[in-house]
Amino acid sequence: STLRNIVQKMPKAELHIHIEGSLEPELIFALAERNLVALNYASVDELRRAYAFTDLQSFLDIYYAGASVLLTEQDFFDMTWAYLQRAKADHVLHTEIFFDPQTHTTRGVAFSTVIDGIHRALREARARWGMSGALIMCFLRHLSEEDAFATLEQALPYRDKFIGVGLDSSERGNPPEKFARVFARCKELGLHLVAHAGEEGPPAYIETALDVLQVERIDHGVRCLEDAALTRRLARDKIPLTVCPLSNLKLRVIDKLSDHNLLQLLDAGLVATINSDDPAYFGGYMNDNFVQTFEALPLQRKHAQQLARNSFFASFLDASTKQKYL
Ligand code: ADE
Ligand code: ZN
């Protein structure tokens, strides 16, 4: 069977998906109508035409605006359910989903509304299909550490509904060390720790995410190759990178997909994975990312197997479940 077929059908885990980034323009319009929220775009097509990003910030501005239609628990369920159906179709057996509570609580939406709606969809997918999923709460790094602490406080009554914390939003000028104390507290609480680093930001941010925040995985991390010592360290310590090729293309981290460094990352012995990041905005879910990356780069069957294996190895599944996939 063709390599394309193999990458599509192989069982995989997704480890880097912002649930708000799975909100399709059609659902944005449906929820705007249901909730009587005014949009600055006249149609689905007009909204989609605005998805011409020049960098991370130009995307984030539109992404936060899109999330403004999410008001009720059912809205968060519907968004998550739509994503889980797409993930299932791409043979994703396990998914670790980011959510950005501050995007919603700053608009007056209760923390419980957000997490209950998302979590109900995860329970439904497990009950119906045996698909596993877990939540990682992200702190918005353009906001203060004090804000992050307040969010953690709001989250604690729901401690059983999420497994870890992450750090996302505008990377440049918001280094990991800004969140040193809140991550230390999260570690004490037994939460898993991850952070976006080395997407647009320098390799030094990857280092401080590891040394200061003590994260277990790096989200993106593609700029690590600019620092040979850091690259060796990531390989030696098997620190996974959750790479998102179509995101890197659409946010102009790279000019064309054939310029992507995924093969160099694998050749350097890094635990790199392929993920979708914000699939509704970047033109593709998991298999779109796999197929287009395999078309653009000289990746072979062994790389497909390695990427699938890496996705489970890098997951926060318990050791015995993980073992079954490896
Ligand atoms: N939030 C959603 N997608 C993101 C990305 N790629 N980088 C930083 N923050 C994000
Ligand atoms: Zn991301």
Automatic annotation (TrEMBL):
Positions marked as site (Important for catalytic activity): 220
Gene Ontology MF term list: hydrolase activity
Entry-linked PANTHER family: ADENINE DEAMINASE (PTHR43114)
Pfam families in the record: A_deaminase (PF00962)
Protein's UniProt name: Adenine deaminase
Domain Adenosine deaminase: 11-326
Keyword DNA damage found: no
Enzyme superclass (EC): hydrolase
